[in-house]
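FAQ

Q: What does a record look like?
A: Structure on top, sequence underneath. For example:
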């Protein structure tokens, strides 16, 4: 069956594929420890869920304004204003069906055939695919210093072409948990501004940060650097609202209008009750901060426990210590062998033989690694690492 050239090179989500494999093996009666999850394992805060229920009961079940209901756009703008200490105009906010649609809106509106878009490696799996859908070319930029997994302006300069139109940034990073300092972020954005390149900054994990209240963000930068940027964020991660599908972008008023026009022909806007639920988490209330802080404390504890357990049982595995998000990026290429040569083969073997589901680093552009999520119970994390250690002993012939 023929398909359009628009999707000829499109690849499915590796993380969703792992989740589907886990479901299949569990249906066969297997005990699978899923350490691949890309969403918090917490429930949506009760007050947000109650606001969604109240919205349904009050009849807020019709089409929303395309750019979002005004109370939510106002609440997001006010939250950004408080957080970054600057005045954010709600007219620049476009609420979307998850942050992924906000990313699509920006990419599809700003890039097209003949354009190059720079994507730092490792990257979230959807970035190259979103760029491909615009018929632009994703240009993968690997850091020269691979130990820190951070790109620099020098890395970007090496990848620059006359056709470069965009740069996708993600901090805290999925899959590494790396958080760029404010100085590092400023250097990247200043480089882009000097070359007339649009920056799309995905900050969906911004409030899941282990050293500060939030990770440095693009709105921390000087106003002069914000003329050609798009901020993407949402309620999914910090508020455990993945299934509610509420994301947003902030940009210039001109761009916001175009994003809204595009969205009007795709989804017509995010779910109305979900938007009213999200108003509750963007308000300046102590219970909002308490819910976020409580979740981040648990993630920090799990991160530290996982790193300690890896150090005890698998000292040969190098783990990138994350300062944000809820992932460990583990370097596994020393364990590759002819019959298990690559992260995909290794992850397939682990889930089939050890019952531990991880995501292959190949999905993120770096085949040397695998991603382990600590968005699951501490018991699952500890047992999963123990199973990995048993696998390693068998690999060495010590078991």
């Amino acid at each position: 069956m023929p398909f359009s050239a628009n999707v000829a090179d499109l690849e499915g989500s590796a993380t969703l594929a792992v989740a589907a494999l886990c479901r299949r093996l569990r249906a066969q009666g297997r005990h699978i420890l899923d350490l691949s999850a890309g969403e918090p394992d917490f429930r949506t805060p009760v007050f947000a869920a109650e606001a969604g229920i109240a919205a349904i009961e009050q009849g807020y079940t019709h089409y929303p304004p395309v750019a979002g209901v005004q109370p939510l756009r106002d609440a997001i703008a006010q939250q950004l204003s408080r957080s970054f200490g600057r005045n954010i105009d709600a007219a620049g906010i476009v609420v979307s069906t998850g942050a992924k649609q906000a990313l699509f809106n920006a990419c599809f509106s700003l890039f097209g055939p003949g354009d190059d878009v720079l994507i730092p490696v490792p990257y979230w799996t959807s970035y190259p695919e979103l760029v491909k859908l615009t018929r632009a070319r994703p240009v993968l930029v690997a850091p020269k210093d691979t130990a820190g997994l951070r790109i620099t302006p020098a890395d970007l300069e090496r990848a620059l072409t006359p056709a470069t139109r965009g740069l996708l940034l993600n901090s805290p990073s999925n899959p590494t948990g790396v958080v760029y300092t404010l100085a590092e972020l400023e250097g990247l954005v200043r480089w882009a501004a000097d070359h007339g390149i649009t920056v799309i900054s995905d900050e969906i994990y911004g409030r899941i940060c282990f050293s500060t209240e939030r990770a440095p963000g693009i709105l921390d930068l000087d106003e002069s650097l914000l003329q050609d940027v798009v901020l993407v964020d949402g309620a999914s991660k910090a508020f455990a609202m993945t299934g509610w599908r509420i994301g947003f972008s902030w940009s210039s008023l001109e761009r916001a209008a175009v994003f809204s026009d595009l969205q009007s022909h795709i989804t017509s806007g995010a779910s109305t009750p979900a938007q009213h639920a999200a108003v509750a988490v963007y308000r300046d209330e102590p219970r909002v901060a308490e819910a976020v802080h409580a979740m981040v404390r648990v993630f920090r504890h799990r991160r530290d426990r996982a790193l300690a357990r890896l150090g005890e049982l698998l000292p040969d595995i190098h783990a990138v210590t994350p300062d944000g998000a809820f992932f460990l990026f583990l370097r596994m290429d020393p364990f590759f062998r002819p019959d298990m040569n690559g992260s995909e083969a290794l992850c397939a073997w682990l889930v089939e033989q050890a019952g531990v589901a991880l995501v292959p680093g190949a999905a993120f552009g770096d085949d040397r690694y695998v991603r382990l999520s600590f968005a699951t119970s501490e018991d699952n994390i500890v047992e999963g690492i123990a199973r990995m250690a048993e696998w390693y002993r068998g690999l060495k012939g010590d078991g």
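Q: Is there anything notable about this one?
A: Residues 5-43+288-396 form a domain with the Aspartate Aminotransferase, domain 1 fold (CATH 3.90.1150.10).
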